[in-house]
Write a structure and sequence with these properties.
Layout lengths: L15 H12 L4 E2 L6 E2 L2 H12 L4 E2 L6 E2 L2 H12 L4 E2 L6 E2 L2 H12 L4 E2 L6 E2 L2 H12 L4 E2 L6 E2 L2 H12 L4 E2 L6 E2 L2 H12 L4 E2 L6 E2 L2 H12 L4 E2 L6 E2 L2 H12 L4 E2 L6 E2 L2 H12 L4 E2 L6 E2 L2 H12 L4 E2 L6 E2 L2 H12 L4 E2 L6 E2 L2 H12 L4 E2 L6 E2 L2 H12 L4 E2 L6 E2 L2 H12 L4 E2 L6 E2 L1
Antiparallel strand pairs: 1-2, 3-4, 5-6, 7-8, 9-10, 11-12, 13-14, 15-16, 17-18, 19-20, 21-22, 23-24, 25-26, 27-28, 29-30
GO molecular function: DNA-binding transcription activator activity, RNA polymerase II-specific; RNA polymerase II cis-regulatory region sequence-specific DNA binding; zinc ion binding
Protein name: Zinc finger protein 501-like
Pfam families: zf-C2H2 (PF00096)
Length: about 425
């Protein structure tokens, strides 16, 4: 262990005097000290109860899962996980809780009472546990460590949720469709898909959302706020998740691996989207027209075709767009930015898709093959246009060779070729014309 380390929270100090001064924050109003770990307690009974942790004495065992507890009351509370019992009911909103202190803390939401205040930033909280967890933002303390991967957390509840990544446990099940979740909050949010409840409304445009976090994220569309900044390149994001995924561009980390084809992904959303390519699953359905989509963002974007909503506005010309990506691409018209450069010829492009299509000139790759005639194309737009030539009528016919065409310009060019008596070889009729 490093010199001058606090055994209570793991923080290190340069001087012993700094350590002793720091330890007072743990011991204030707590005269009873544990000789094993130097933790302090306000009551002797609490110290005696705590010391059983070191003695590994847990006399009260759960008959369901075998977990042991130092106090019988803790076992009684724990059993409610298995029975689902929630005997403490809120008279204001009918919410039920497994433990009394959870009900008391919840009731303060209705009364507006927040008696626990942070001495550092002044923020107030309805219960002491939440305040203790909040303080760790200032101290940097993360006392709860995962035994599987070593990752540390400020809150025990967050560690418990994290452990489910390793165990695969999903204890929260939807009664409607049977889908399971690792967190209760995710289940509650999911259930709103079935009920259609969207309690969180934007005061600017009237859009409603099932989660408050989604509303806060949406409001940044109006404010332009991007509070999450990359320390490597300075790029900012409206969502913390977007910043985390972006950082992996710098680190090269791709933690999500497809077991079907071995492809790896930096973001979970991209990974889930990719997996549905193998399964064919399209779980997100439009209630207006019944069309189904692979991911929720595609559905949200599609729904704007019905609502006409275009929340992303260009500050230069006031043009609005349904998708943020479309706005970002459009803004490059004003800035002249071309961030995508070909490593072969150094040509730059404003769109990544344009760069990918261009690179096929160098590689000769033509991944888009027509199932009708076998012709291959390097870019998707040419391929889609070509496919349409098999389906659409060809009203224009060349009088010289009999070939049919879709658009007028191609027909005119063919007539001109024959009229000028140039030597050509026509793909359709294989005739040489002089």
């Amino acid at each position: 262990m490093e010199k001058n380390t606090c055994l209570q929270c793991g923080r290190c100090f340069m001087e012993i005097s700094e350590l002793l001064n720091h330890q007072r924050c743990h011991s204030e109003g707590k005269p009873y000290k544990c000789v094993d770990c130097r933790k302090y307690f306000p009551e002797l009974s609490e110290l005696l109860s705590h010391q059983r942790v070191h003695a590994v004495e847990r006399p009260h065992k759960c008959s369901e899962c075998g977990k042991g507890f130092t106090k019988k009351s803790s076992l009684v509370c724990h059993r409610r996980i298995h029975t689902g019992e929630k005997p403490f009911k809120c008279l204001e909103c009918a919410n039920c809780f497994a433990q009394r202190w959870l009900l008391v803390a919840h009731q303060r939401i209705h009364t507006g009472e927040f008696p626990y205040q942070c001495s550092v930033c002044g923020k107030r909280f309805p219960d002491k546990t939440t305040l203790i967890g909040h303080r760790r933002i200032h101290t940097g303390e993360k006392p709860f460590k995962c035994s599987e991967c070593g990752k540390a957390f400020a809150l025990n509840s967050v560690l418990i949720t994290h452990l489910r990544v390793h165990t695969g446990e999903k204890p929260y099940k939807c009664a409607e469709c049977g889908k399971c979740f690792t967190q209760k909050g995710n289940l509650v949010g999911h259930q709103r898909i079935h009920t259609g409840v969207k309690p969180h409304k934007c005061l600017v445009c009237g859009m409603c959302y099932p989660h408050n976090s989604q509303l806060l994220q949406h409001q940044r569309v109006h404010t332009g706020e991007e509070p999450f900044k990359c320390m490597e390149c300075g790029k900012c994001y409206a969502r913390k998740e977007s910043l985390i995924i972006h950082k992996r561009l710098h680190t090269g980390e791709k933690p999500y691996r497809c077991l079907e084809c071995g492809m790896c992904f930096a973001g979970r959303a991209s990974f889930v989207y990719h997996k549905r390519g193998h399964t064919g699953e399209k779980p997100f359905k439009c209630l207006e027209c019944g069309k189904c989509f692979i991911d929720k963002s595609c559905l949200v974007y599609h729904q704007r075709a019905h609502t006409g909503e275009k929340p992303y506005q260009c500050q230069e010309c006031r043009k609005s767009f349904a998708a943020k990506a479309s706005l970002v691409c459009h803004q490059r018209i004003h800035t002249g930015e071309k961030p995508y450069t070909c490593v072969e010829c150094r040509k730059s492009f404003s769109l990544r898709s344009s760069l990918v299509s261009h690179q096929r000139i160098h590689t000769g790759d033509k991944p888009y093959k027509c199932s009708e005639c076998g012709k291959c194309y390097g870019d998707r737009s040419s391929f889609i246009y070509h496919r349409g030539t098999h389906k659409r009528a060809k009203p224009y016919k060349c009088l010289e060779c009999g070939a049919s065409f879709v658009p007028q310009p191609f027909f005119g060019n063919s007539q001109k070729v024959h009229a000028e008596q140039k030597l050509i070889h026509h793909e359709t009729c294989s005739l040489y014309i002089k």
